[in-house]
Specification:
Strand order of the largest sheet: 8-7-13-12-11
Strand content: 15-25%
Structural class: alpha+beta
Helix content: 40-55%
Number of domains: 3
Number of strands: 20
Number of helices: 17
Shape: flat
């Protein structure tokens, strides 16, 4: 059967291509037809697979943003309670204990309204010990507060506020594709709750602030997430983006449109409706994230569901984000229809144009073909005049073909002569190219080294100007802060003892800012901090460095081993070189998690002629090493892999060594260690202007 169909198709193709006219039509239309068919297939495939995957990727990202938004709300609530308990008015009232209970209640109520909480109260440690819900929120000894989501029954809500029991109540609705409700209404409430320590003016814990927000019927949370994710023009026209918070499988807060009793869609929200059974089993029962199509209340959505956990780690509900599917399907079908119409028009116009053009080509092509066949047989024939305009491509082709035949024999003779000359020239040029290639490689290597140095210099200059400006702008307000803090301490007199800790903390932080500013200025304007350069021996400087860092690294049980073999002297500033070596050794100790040794070695630095050029210093550790992708950035200002670092140590070290006319290099292997090598010349370095001139001369 297969052979019969193949023979029939081959026969039909032979009939279609039996003449030049038919062959031209087939050859010209076939690529167009195949291209258009491929385009249709690719477009449909792209819309089905790629666009669909993009929708699921978007809804997955939306779900992640929504989860982050919920965590951010908990953090904001925790910060708000911290500000309340830090208020001087509340601390003063609490110090008087029972004498100002009414005033304390007033302060708490005004703060509750101001920060938008549904409840805010003061509780004691004894109350927390008897309340199982509060036990889970008890902050640790090192923490000021703890936040989380909890589910409270009707009695627990009533203890917080009688109004919360009414606000939490919601009747349950029968929902398509969901299981039947097991009860008539939901009386439990889901709350975002924070428990924060309250300390008196002496820092003693005298109670706890218990505050939070009821999420049942709460529109601000889901509407805030929706407005952030699905702002205008982020979805196709007619698409609706929605967010829902579930208590178990019940929608307690949502902006999914509900349905009025008359049967028409309205502004009522689908609060109290249930999630589909398929989603409930996957998310609530199995604890998995759902990213797929889902039937949401009364329509199909591109949806994402994630389990929601309380402060104890139990699954208590779900968080959902999604948008309606119908507008995307409508746009997809409309695009396919428009593309099909356009492709049909293109195919029709192409067929007409090919047919008209084929007629004008046939006769001249037949004549050209006959001359070609005669030439193949060795006959001397020419195409001559085709009866076409001189500007016609076929007419020009015929003339050029005739000229080609005339020149063909002459070209053959010239080709032979040229081939002989070419072979000789190729041999000569090959030898020359080998010499030039060697020179070019050497020049390229020099150019690359010079370019790298100039890029580094330009980057350091630009960053230096920027940091100088920043340091200058910060320095003035820092001085004002120091002056005003001293004035405040003087004006308060004896009362300053109540806030002495806070004043000292501010002064410490300002001093830290000034230290950072000093480093910035030293990096940005090294000329202002230049010290005289003197000819020094490396050994004593290294020995002094080991004495200075011994106290800093002895807690880690790290030894500094010296291997000093150099006898050459170098032109440096002793204190600045000490600063560089101390910085490298301290950095090496930070990279070593356990006890070990840091090896500092020196040896003479020789040039190509074997003459002593200077000294090479190496600082090697047995630490964790540096990732290859970070090696090119370690000398950049403000780049650091340590949480407490400023990122200026290696940048300043680089500038100091460069001022000495030296070079600092780094080699590192992950899990083995890192080695910093400093090359210092014996002769005094050129100044900055001379260095710049020399670099330009090299380029």
């Amino acid at each position: 059967m297969f052979n019969q169909w193949r023979n029939r198709i081959e026969g039909d193709l032979k009939v279609l291509t039996s003449t030049v006219r038919s062959r031209l039509l087939v050859l010209m239309l076939l690529p167009v037809l195949l291209t258009l068919a491929s385009l249709v297939f690719v477009t449909i495939y792209w819309n089905v697979s790629y666009t669909g995957s993009q929708l699921f990727m978007k809804v997955r990202a939306d779900l992640g943003v929504a989860q982050g938004f919920v965590l951010e709300q908990l953090d904001d609530q925790e910060q708000a309670l911290s500000q309340v308990q830090e208020a001087w008015q509340l601390k003063s009232l609490l110090s008087a204990k029972s004498e100002h209970r009414a005033a304390i209640s007033q302060v708490l109520e005004s703060n509750r309204i101001a920060i938008g909480l549904d409840f805010l109260r003061m509780v004691s440690a004894e109350t927390i010990a008897t309340d199982p819900h509060l036990k889970h929120l008890m902050p640790s000894a090192n923490a000021r507060a703890k936040s989380g989501i909890q589910v409270l029954d009707r009695d627990a809500l009533g203890q917080l506020s009688t109004a919360l029991t009414r606000e939490a109540l919601m009747p349950l609705k029968h929902t398509a594709m969901a299981g039947e409700p097991t009860k008539v209404s939901e009386t439990r409430g889901m709350v975002m709750r924070t428990l924060s320590k309250v300390q008196d003016t002496q820092g003693n814990v005298i109670g706890y602030l218990d505050g939070g927000v009821l999420l049942n019927h709460n529109r601000s949370l889901v509407d805030g997430i929706r407005d952030m994710l699905y702002a205008p023009n982020t979805l196709p026209e007619g698409a609706i983006g929605t967010v829902t918070l579930f208590l178990d499988n019940i929608r307690i807060s949502t902006n999914v449109p509900g349905q009025l009793e008359e049967g028409g869609l309205g502004d009522e929200r689908a609060v109290g409706s249930l999630v589909s059974e398929q989603v409930r089993m996957e998310v609530l029962e199995k604890g998995r994230v759902w990213i797929d199509r889902a039937f949401v209340y009364n329509d199909w959505y591109i949806a994402a569901y994630a389990p929601l956990f309380d402060v104890s780690g139990h699954r208590i509900g779900m968080l959902y984000t999604g948008f309606t599917e119908a507008p995307f399907v409508h746009n997809y079908l409309l695009n396919i229809l428009e593309l099909g119409i356009i492709l049909l028009l293109v195919l029709s116009l192409s067929a007409l144009a090919v047919y008209k053009g084929a007629t004008g080509l046939l006769q001249p092509l037949d004549r050209i073909h006959s001359v070609v066949r005669a030439t193949q047989r060795g006959e001397k024939r020419r195409i001559g005049n085709l009866g076409l305009d001189d500007d016609n491509e076929l007419s020009q082709l015929a003339k050029q073909f005739d000229q080609m035949l005339d020149l063909l024999q002459q070209r053959n003779r010239e080709i032979k002569q040229a081939a002989e000359q070419l072979e000789f020239k190729v041999e000569e040029r090959t030898r020359s190219l080998k010499r030039k290639t060697k020179q070019l490689k050497e020049n390229l290597q020099l150019l690359e080294e010079t370019r790298s140095q100039m890029v580094t210099n330009e980057k350091l200059v630009a960053l230096g100007e920027l940091t100088a400006g920043i340091a200058h702008e910060i320095n003035n307000p820092t001085a004002v802060i120091l002056g005003n803090m001293e004035l405040m301490r003087f004006e308060l007199g004896d009362r300053a003892e109540d806030v002495e800790e806070e004043i000292d903390l501010v002064l410490q932080q300002v001093q830290r800012i000034k230290a950072i500013i000093q480093s910035l200025l030293q990096y940005a304007r090294p000329g202002d901090f230049d010290a005289p350069l003197e000819r020094q021996s490396i050994g004593p400087i290294v020995e002094e460095m080991r004495v200075l860092v011994r106290h800093s690294i002895e807690k880690q049980a790290i030894d500094v081993d010296l291997d000093l073999q150099s006898d050459a002297t170098v032109v440096v500033n002793r204190q600045q070189l000490l600063q560089v070596l101390i910085n490298l050794v301290i950095n090496a100790s930070h990279a070593m998690e356990n006890a070990g040794a840091i090896r500092v070695s020196s040896q003479n630095w020789f040039d190509d002629n074997g003459e002593v050029k200077g000294v090479k210093l190496a600082v090697a550790d047995e630490g964790v090493g540096i990732k290859p992708e970070l090696l090119s950035r370690i000398f950049d200002p403000f780049f650091t892999t340590r949480k407490t670092g400023t990122g200026l140590g290696l940048a300043l070290s680089y500038g100091i060594i460069r001022r000495f006319g030296g070079v600092i290099e780094v080699e590192s292997t992950l899990g083995v260690g890192t080695t910093f090598t400093i090359s210092l010349p014996s002769e005094a370095p050129l100044n900055e202007d001379q260095q710049a001139v020399n670099l330009k001369g090299i380029l």
